[in-house]
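for the recovery benchmark. tokens below, seq after
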């Protein structure tokens, strides 16, 4: 039996705007990621947050704690018009360069935002636990903490429900801490506050099947033909060496072949992909 296309319905597809076509990107900043001392958890979380809202991640980049590299990366991403999340480098230690680099990439300067200053002061007071020395906002240590509230001119505050130290957004770029426990709710807040009109606007669908002992080179022409004959449909191939733990058809070498795109475009392409695969002599195992 041919599986039904998996659809994500929308209330009124005619309301989809050009904004719905905008791409979402991720920049992860930090030497600790590139050296392997820490494993990146931001990308998988952002993919999850976007998917829950009918959106998807278009690209991701990893950048070192290097001012020139950060500035160049941000300058390029500002020019795209994409919606971008940037994690890391917004603290107040010597290796935190993101705030200044964002300003430099935009040709502006940073300034201390009163709202951020107030939030940081509140955090200082709460952490002092009644100790008047720790609560003194004029100490060099506390004055240095206020640097975390210096953002590029023209920025808006991103609230941080974890410890109240805010992030910032400017030109569709959203800058959050490198700590996933803080970054995740801040990214969700940005999506829900600023991009709700983009949620679930596309009648997106995806379907695939398993080809045991499949060989990609013999399937390439079919994949190319499907995309030419059905504009707007993308064909994907995910080869696997097999996973004995899963058992069955998954235990041996196989290819997961499928299509994705607007559900209104997929029915004929789906049938053509299946027929073409069988004509090449392959068996098809549907994924339930």
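predicted aa per position
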């Amino acid at each position: 039996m041919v599986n039904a296309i998996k659809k994500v319905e929308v209330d009124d597809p005619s309301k989809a705007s050009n904004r719905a076509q905008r791409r979402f990107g991720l920049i992860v900043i930090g030497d600790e990621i590139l050296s392997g001392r820490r494993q990146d958890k931001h990308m998988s979380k952002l993919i999850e947050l976007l998917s829950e809202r009918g959106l998807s991640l278009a690209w991701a980049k990893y950048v070192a704690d290097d001012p020139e590299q950060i500035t160049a990366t941000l300058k390029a991403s500002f020019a795209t018009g994409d919606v971008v999340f940037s994690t890391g480098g917004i603290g107040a230690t010597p290796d935190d360069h993101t705030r200044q680099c964002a300003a430099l990439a935009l040709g502006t300067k940073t300034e201390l935002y009163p709202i951020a200053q107030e939030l940081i002061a509140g955090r200082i007071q709460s952490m002092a636990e009644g100790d008047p020395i720790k609560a003194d906002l004029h100490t060099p240590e506390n004055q240095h903490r206020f640097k975390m509230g210096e953002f590029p001119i023209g920025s808006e505050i991103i609230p941080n429900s974890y410890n109240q130290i805010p992030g910032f957004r400017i030109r569709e770029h959203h800058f959050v801490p490198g700590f996933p426990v803080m970054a995740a709710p801040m990214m969700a807040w940005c999506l829900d506050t600023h991009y709700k009109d983009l949620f679930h606007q596309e009648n997106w669908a995806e379907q695939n099947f398993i080809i045991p002992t499949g060989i990609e080179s013999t399937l390439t022409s079919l994949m190319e033909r499907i995309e030419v004959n059905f504009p707007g449909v993308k064909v994907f191939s995910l080869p696997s060496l097999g996973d004995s733990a899963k058992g069955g058809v998954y235990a041996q070498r196989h290819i997961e072949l499928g299509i994705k795109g607007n559900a209104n475009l997929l029915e004929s392409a789906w049938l053509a992909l299946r027929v073409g695969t069988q004509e090449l002599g392959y068996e098809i195992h549907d994924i339930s």
